[in-house]
Specification:
The protein has about 240 residues and is an alpha/beta fold. About 30% of the residues lie in helices and about 35% in strands. The chain has helices at about 55-60, 70-80, 95-105, 115-130, 140-150, 165-170, 170-175, 190-200, and strands at about 1-5, 10-15, 20, 25, 35-40, 45-50, 85-90, 105-110, 135-140, 155-160, 175-185, 205-210, 215-220, 220-225, 230-240. A seven-stranded mixed beta sheet has the order 9-8-7-10-11-15-12, sandwiched between helices. A four-stranded antiparallel beta sheet has the order 2-1-6-5, with no helix packed on it. Strand 8, helix 4 and strand 9 (about 135-140) form a beta-alpha-beta unit. This is Methyltransferase domain-containing protein.
């Protein structure tokens, strides 16, 4: 998949597809490469771009509110997730986190309870080009822990974005390799405290952060943080085995 860009418009398409807009019709070449520009039959230019992480956030099919790039950045930064790492994830949703981790080369097993959501996530993994790295499974991870432990599966990172995160966090020591990380993304303070208490029983102490980001506005009147947009997204709990 590639992005076709005209000024402030972006369209996600496959090579060989036909793009039809009010700017004209564009037959996308099979060999279209990033950096090239093609014109519609009306002479309107579209530049070709390769998909990057933020493009996935903007264009993948959604089944709910996806994790924000800033939260994903903190997860990668605080855990050092890298190529070859094994990641166990609960709460696939749209699959934004799994797609980002797959693109850095981590091998992700992600659990989604809703079969229809899982199908959308699998399609998104194809769009992101990470099917060889991301395995979308239908199920509840809290019900699969016994099986994973019995099979002696161990992971470098455990990421949780589910209501039952405390239940899985309580058994994190059985799922992580020595030195591995647990990360829980939690929208509410009450759930965050429950995760922290569970982590203290299984791994020990935890670090918790509220993720807040403000865009800056610069105009002729002056410079200030924007009054628009979402500042707070959630809480991130980190702990190490």
């Amino acid at each position: 998949m590639i992005l076709l860009v005209h000024e402030d418009r972006e369209y996600l398409r496959a090579r060989g597809d036909t793009l039809e807009t009010d700017l004209g019709v564009l037959e996308i070449p099979e060999d279209a490469e990033p950096g090239e520009t093609y014109e519609t039959h009306l002479g309107e230019p579209f530049a070709v771009r390769e998909l990057r992480g933020p493009d996935l956030f903007n264009h993948l099919d959604r089944t709910g509110a996806p994790m924000m790039p800033r939260d994903i950045g903190l997860i990668i930064g605080h855990t050092g997730i890298a190529a070859g790492d094994r990641v166990l994830d609960a709460g696939t949703g749209t699959g934004i986190l799994s797609a980002y981790l797959g693109r850095v080369g981590a091998n992700v097993a992600t659990y989604e309870r809703d079969p229809e959501f899982a199908d959308v996530a699998r399609s998104n993994m194809e769009t992101a080009g990470v099917t060889e790295h991301v395995d979308v499974r239908v199920g509840d991870l809290s019900e699969e822990v016994d099986t994973l432990v019995a099979e002696e599966e161990r992971f470098d990172v455990l990421t949780l974005d589910t209501e039952d995160a405390p239940d899985v966090a309580a058994r994190a020591d059985e799922l992580l390799v020595d030195g591995g990380y647990l990360v829980a993304y939690v929208p509410f303070v009450e759930g965050t405290r429950a995760v922290v208490e569970a982590v203290r029983e299984s791994l020990g102490d935890a670090e918790t952060f509220e993720t807040v980001q403000r865009r800056m506005d610069f105009d002729e009147r002056g410079s200030r943080p924007s009054t628009a947009g979402v500042g707070h997204t959630g809480y991130l709990v980190f702990a190490r085995a």
